[in-house]
């Protein structure tokens, strides 16, 4: 499944909100050296109850709006 994600780096609290056909994810990490992308993959893997290797950023690696592919287990 592919989802659109809008990220907010440098947030005080991590969370995920769903609305308007996109996921809004607040991250603690800064958008430097891929740290925010790594944190995003960890959060989404936990949220969808799958492993990190099943979550892949398809586009938007350096953008706040990303397309993410999640391969569901089972």
Structure commentary:
With 74 residues, the chain is an alpha+beta fold. The chain has one domain: Conserved Hypothetical Protein Mth637, Chain: A (2-Layer Sandwich), CATH 3.30.1200.10. It has a 5-stranded mixed β-sheet, covered by helices on one side. The longest helix has 13 residues. The two termini are 13 Å apart. The mean pLDDT is 95.
What's the number of helices? 1
Q: What is the total domain count? A: 1
In this structure, how is the largest beta sheet organized?
Answer: 5 strands, mixed
Total beta strand runs? 5
- Class derived from helix and strand content: alpha+beta
Name given to the CATH homologous superfamily? YggU-like
Q: Please identify, by name, the CATH architecture.
A: 2-Layer Sandwich
**Could you list the spans in which at least 5 consecutive residues all have pLDDT below 50?**
none
Percent range for helical residues? 10-25%
- Mean of pLDDT: 95
Shape: globular
Major sheet: arrangement of strands: 2-3-1-5-4
Span from first to last CA?
A: 13 Å
Report the top-level CATH class: Alpha Beta
Proportion of strand residues = 35-45%
Order of helices and strands: EEEHEE
Give the topology, please.
Elements lengths: L1 E7 L6 E5 L2 E5 L8 H13 L7 E5 L5 E6 L4
Parallel strand pairs: 1-3
Antiparallel strand pairs: 1-5, 2-3, 4-5
Summarize this entry quickly.
With 74 residues, the chain is of the alpha+beta class.
List keywords for this structure.
single chain; 74 residues; alpha+beta; Conserved Hypothetical Protein Mth637, Chain: A; 5-stranded mixed sheet; globular
């Amino acid at each position: 499944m592919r989802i659109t994600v809008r990220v907010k780096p440098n947030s005080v609290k991590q969370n995920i909100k769903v609305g308007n056909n996109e996921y809004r994810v607040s991250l603690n990490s800064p958008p430097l050296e891929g740290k925010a992308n790594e944190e995003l993959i960890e959060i989404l893997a936990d949220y969808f109850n799958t492993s990190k290797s099943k979550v892949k950023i398809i586009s938007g690696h350096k953008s706040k709006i990303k397309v993410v592919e999640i391969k569901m287990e089972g």
